[in-house]
Amino acid sequence: MPERLSIADVWSALEDLRARRPLVHNITNYVAMSVSANVLLALGASPAMVHAVEEVEDFAAISDALVINIGTLSPPWVAAMGKAVERMRTAGKPWVLDPVGCGATPYRTQVAAELAVLSPAIIRGNAAEIMSLAGESGAGKGVDSVSRADDATHAAAALAARTGAVVAVTGEVDYVCDGAGCTAIYGGHALMPLSTALGCSLSAITAAFAAVRPPREAAMAALTVFAAAGSAAAARCRGPGHLPAELCDALHLMTPAMLAEHVRIAAAPAG
Fold this sequence. Notes:
Elements: H1 7-20, E1 23-27, H2 33-43, E2 46-49, H3 56-62, E3 65-69, H4 75-91, E4 95-98, H5 106-116, E5 122-126, H6 127-133, E6 140-141, E7 144-145, H7 153-163, E8 166-170, E9 173-178, E10 181-186, H8 198-210, H9 215-234, H10 243-252, H11 256-262, E11 264-267
Parallel strand pairs: 1-2, 1-3, 3-4, 4-5, 5-8
Antiparallel strand pairs: 6-7, 8-9, 9-10, 10-11
Helix pairs in contact: 1-9, 2-8, 2-10, 3-4, 6-7, 8-9, 9-10, 9-11
């Protein structure tokens, strides 16, 4: 049975992140750049969106963590992703893979699979993406998942065993899986999937936490803080339009009391 973090553990990780202010190198998609940068700043990290193949190795060398998001793929970006990942691996620094839309097209699936074997610390995706990357059948619609996160825990555990990465599968309930099993995180809000780039932003803050904690703790802390912020933010919104701004405010104002009020961490149901 995997050990679960307490709210106090999550808060300690966030305090360390805010004190260190890690530089997070993002090779992410056009849709997510602004939202991810604002979310990282609100959390307490320092974002950079650097994807030119001519400079990614140099920038990775000065970064504390890297997130690779394949949302808007092109061959030059794929080459830049490979170079940045190799520099992070050589330096022993963590990187996070977000396999956006894996399973939607053969090219996208191939790129995600090639990146997944390059020792990511954490892989974060929705149920359809994780199931596809694990070689199972998951229901997706473009970059969105029709499958439930609950349906993907077996695939997440298998993917973790195969790649050595901690795998975070997100949805109505979030799960963090590794070789020891899966932990469930209950929180968030139904408005969150209706606002674009929030999942991508979650991958970015997962990389930020990976700069200050080991992969499993980092994934759990990131998902817990983000779920609490999403729940608190949605309570202030009539719809999804203002949610990203309210989410940034909630991340900036996060407290242990907010975490305890909006999130529950538990062992994943058996089955």
